[in-house]
Amino acid sequence: MPRRQAPSRSPDDPLPASFYDRDPELVALDLLGKRLIRDSDEGRVEGRIVEVEAYLASGDPACHAARGETRRNASMFGPPGRAYVYSIHARYCFNAVVQPEQSGSAILIRALEPLQGLDIMRARRGRDRLLDLTRGPARLCEAFAIDTGWDSWDLCQGNQLWIAHELPAADQIVVGRSPRIGIRTAQDLLLRFFADGNRFVSGPRHTHTRPVQ
DNA sequence: CTACCGATTGACT
DNA sequence: GTCAATCGGTAGA
Predict the structure, then answer these.
(1) pLDDT level of residue A2 (50, 70, 90 thresholds)
(2) I need a labelling partner for A2 at 20 to 30 A (CA). Which of A16, A125, A139, A181 fits?
(3) Contact assessment for residue A181 and residue A203, using Cβ atoms and an 8 Å cutoff
(4) How far apart are the first and last CA of chain A?
(5) For the whole model, what pTM was predicted?
(6) How many CA atoms lie within 13 A of A157 on its CB side?
(7) What angle do CA A137, A138, A141 make, to 5 degrees?
(8) Tens-digit pLDDT profile for residues A110-133
(9) Does the nearest atom of strand C lie within 7 Å of A90's Cβ?
(10) SS3 letters for A33-63?
(11) Rounded to 5 degrees, what angle do the CA atoms A182, A81, A6 make?
(12) Which nucleotide in the DNA or RNA is closest to residue A203, CA to C1'?
C-alpha cells in the first residue's frame, strides 16, 4: 500500500496549462461547466461557464489576431492559459488564450451561471435580478471586476482570477452550437458553444436552444 | 492629430 | 423588435 497519498486535489484548483494547450474548439467545448473564480478584498465571486466562443488564429476574419499582432491583442500571441481582456463599446470582454502553435487563438467567455458572491455581483452591477448579473460577456466582466488591467494574467496560478474544474455534483450539460453573436463576418463558422436550454445563456432567446437536427 | 468603428448593453416602441 | 450611448484601438492624413 502506498505510504504517501497523491497530492490532494480540490475542485477549486486551477485548470493546468495543458488544458489550454490544445485545439481551440476542444478547449471551448470543455470550458462549458467549468467555473470562473475571482477573489478580491470584497470576497469571492464564482460562476459556472455556460456559453463560450472560439476565435481562431487562421481562417477566421472575426478574430482580433487576424490582422497580426498589435498592442491590444499581444496577449493572444503569448503562452496558453493567460487572459486576453480587451475593451469594446466602453466595456470589457474576457478570453482565455489557447495553443501557442496556433498563436492568436482565444476563447471568449460569454456567460456564466452565478454560483457564489451574488451580493458582491449585485453591488458591482447595480442590479438585483439574477439574470442581469453575468448573462453576457461585458456583464460578467463587470460582476467579476475584470478590466484590461487583467490582460495577460496567468489563469493557472489559482489565485485572484482563475478557472477551476466543474463541481463533482454538477448536472450534465447538453451542448448547443451556433454562429457567434455580434459579429458580421464568418457567420458560416459554428464557433459558439452553449449549455442547451440554460437560462443564463446570452443572446436572443432562439439561440438558447440548439436546432433540431 | 482626426475619423471611424466594434466579440455590447440598456432603454425604449 | 429598434436604436443610441460609449471610448479605446487603429488607420490614415
Answers:
(1) low
(2) A16
(3) yes
(4) 51
(5) 0.94
(6) 11
(7) 90
(8) 999 999 999 999 999 999 999 999
(9) yes
(10) CCEEEEEECCEEEEEEEEEEEEECCCCCCCC
(11) 135
(12) B8
Residue nearest to nucleotide C1 (CA to C1'): A204
Cell numbers placing A13: 484548483
Are A43 and A96 a contacting pair, CB within 8 Å? Answer: no
Cell numbers for A7:
497530492
What CA–CA distance (Å, rounded) separates A40 from A188? 40
C-alpha cell recorded at residue A51:
456559453
Distance A47 CA to C7 C1' (A): 28
- At A170 the pLDDT is 87
- Written as one string, the DSSP assignment of A108-119 is EEEEEEEEE-HH
Using DSSP, state whether A67 is helix, strand or coil. helix
Tell me which nucleotides of strand B come within 7 A of a protein CB: 6-10
C1' (C4) to CA (A11) span, angstroms = 44
A92 beta carbon to strand C: under 7 Å: no
**Where do the H-state alpha helices sit in chain A?**
17-20, 24-31, 118-125, 137-143
Q: Which nucleotide is nearest to A205 (CA to C1')?
A: C1
Q: Give the C-alpha separation, A134 to A114, whole Å.
A: 7
